[in-house]
Amino acid sequence: xxxxxxxxxxxxxxLHEDMTIARVVQTCGGSPSQWDAWTTTGQYLYLRYRHGEGxxxxxxxxxxxxxxxxxxxxxxxxRDGTADGRIDLADFLALAGLRLDTNAEVHTLPPTGRSx
Length: 116
Known about the structure:
globular
């Protein structure tokens, strides 16, 4: 590795793990856009998009009190150069490098509130 190269971050290291979503539940229909998701191997992911920034966090479960241990961490994040607070699930997944399983269970909410 040269001085100009950066070591891969935690999210980049996880890019080789299962990126297929088996179940996703939208938990906010406004801003921020956010979902609870589970991979086909059962890994829980917290998906969030606010102010043009998307994040995918890995945690042991959807229960917030489990989020402080070694099993928690940032999977990936990005900025899209906007100040938007809403994004469609398909667009979020594409930007995050995730994909839906062909038989995925998807639960969405109607859009509410402001757009950012």
